[in-house]
Amino acid sequence: MKAIAIARSYIEAEGLDLHTAPSFVKLELQNEERTAVRFAVVSIEVAKP
């Protein structure tokens, strides 16, 4: 989450922003089922005033 917030500041000068959509996924690690959070991240163009 922190990396997404930092990335937004880098692309702001180019008139871009990020749209994120979190989701949960199930993983199997060491024969145990775990839940993780996945972030789909897409850049979008921001209208300039």
The helix content is: 10-25%
Shape: elongated
| DSSP summary: helix tally | 1
How many distinct folded domains?
1
Structural class: alpha+beta
In total, the number of strands is 2
Question: In brief, what are we looking at here?
Answer:
With 49 residues, this protein is α+β, with helices and mostly antiparallel strands. The protein has one helix at 2-11, and strands spanning 16-29, 32-45. It is built from one helix and two strands, in the order αββ.
Structural description of this entry:
By secondary structure, the protein is of the alpha+beta class. It has a single domain, classed as Alba-like domain (Translation Initiation Factor IF3), CATH 3.30.110. It has one helix and two strands; from the N terminus they run H-E-E. The chain has a two-stranded antiparallel ribbon. A hairpin with a 2-residue loop joins strand 1 and strand 2. It is elongated and about 55 Å long. The mean pLDDT is 93.
Can you give keywords for this protein?
49 residues, alpha+beta, Translation Initiation Factor IF3, 1 helix, 20% helix, elongated
List the helices and strands and how they pair.
Blueprint: H1 2-11, E1 16-29, E2 32-45
Antiparallel strand pairs: 1-2
